[in-house]
Design brief:
The structure is a homotetramer.
Chain A (H helix, E strand, L loop, with lengths): L4 E8 L4 E4 L5 E9 L2 E4 L4 E4 L3 E8 H8 L7 E15 L2 E15 L4 E7 L6
Parallel strand pairs in A: 6-8
Antiparallel strand pairs in A: 1-3, 1-7, 2-3, 3-6, 4-5, 7-8
Chain lengths: ~120, ~120, ~120, ~120
Amino acid sequence: MNETMITIAGNVATELRFVRSDRGTSLVSFRLASTPRRYDRNQGGWVDGHTTYVTIVCWRTLAENVAGSLHKGDPVVVFGRLRVENWEREGKTGTTVEVEAQALGHDLSRGTSAFRRTRREQR
Amino acid sequence: MNETMITIAGNVATELRFVRSDRGTSLVSFRLASTPRRYDRNQGGWVDGHTTYVTIVCWRTLAENVAGSLHKGDPVVVFGRLRVENWEREGKTGTTVEVEAQALGHDLSRGTSAFRRTRREQR
Amino acid sequence: MNETMITIAGNVATELRFVRSDRGTSLVSFRLASTPRRYDRNQGGWVDGHTTYVTIVCWRTLAENVAGSLHKGDPVVVFGRLRVENWEREGKTGTTVEVEAQALGHDLSRGTSAFRRTRREQR
Amino acid sequence: MNETMITIAGNVATELRFVRSDRGTSLVSFRLASTPRRYDRNQGGWVDGHTTYVTIVCWRTLAENVAGSLHKGDPVVVFGRLRVENWEREGKTGTTVEVEAQALGHDLSRGTSAFRRTRREQR
């Protein structure tokens, strides 16, 4: 089996969290809120569905570009690997739902963007 | 924004749970375990990654066919809507990660299947 | 950039074409017809949309299992890599739209399947 | 069956073509080139795969924002509906591969973007 890939569109729901690892690798994470809208036949109009929250994680060049481009509230489209982790720590349990982004951009269905290419990165 | 669609391949990790609602609607759910394999350049071979568990939910005709076809351990491919829910109940909190299946089948990369079409359902 | 992955559900529209390469590798291909249905607000009902045809290509173990399981008319769900090729041959031009399947199964929203696992393959 | 959704990342390969219909609806289309890179075990490095070209089609607000944001050569990520059409016209035949975009953005793995939200559109 391969990685589980996912595309999710939504709004940046938190401030960005920027970390640089000991080895100097950049890492940015934030929460994304995705609220589907669907046509309701009975009401004869569009209604909001349940909001799904996931944590978006970006590494290296993508992390640096995201740190210089995204702000809380921005609409984005994210493509990446889904990873669900069930953890246990100090007697507590929880579940982390993460998408490690491979491609990510401001959603132009919501506004315009001025793009500036960075010098070619090593991938 | 639209629903967040996802395709996930893995193994049925639990027995099926079959419920019929008061209104007579069929519902089947089970846990799916998805373990990606990736080529490790350093080791020069394929290695297992982290296993992601999600709950698969099937409704109506799909639920009935799934109940008559799937068993614990079977390899399947599932396409459906992702929904992450953070809940709080009796002082406890948790997170549910569900995929509401729209299409689902035994994965023929793992074996063979003999198919029998049901009479045309209303969708 | 990564491969472009796609999930497509539809019906097997042709007989299967089975080939064994000089090196003994199995290859199966067939045409898949996918017809979306959408709710039409004006008509107040579901209507068929445009039918998309693509060529599904399966290799090795998947090819062998598909050859032993699928028949023309069967409903399937396919996950794989999309590849569009514009070709020119003997003064003619054309476009081939292929999905190289990674996972593929009978769609249980249309019927039931009896599955038999093959012995563990090398991937 | 539902629409076949696809996420594709690549570069804008042509100038944008902007059209306004008789009814005043905006429509933008362009060609997208997507070249996968994969790790080649034998060569011990990353190599380019086959380039897939598709036509991206954007409507209404998305079309207007795309017209004001994208340029030939820009790296983008596109999520939308796949549609393959086999046509015949004046004795010639051909195949059109289109993605009707629902969400589309500059790919921040390649550079930075400054975003400006348009006033809330009706969807």
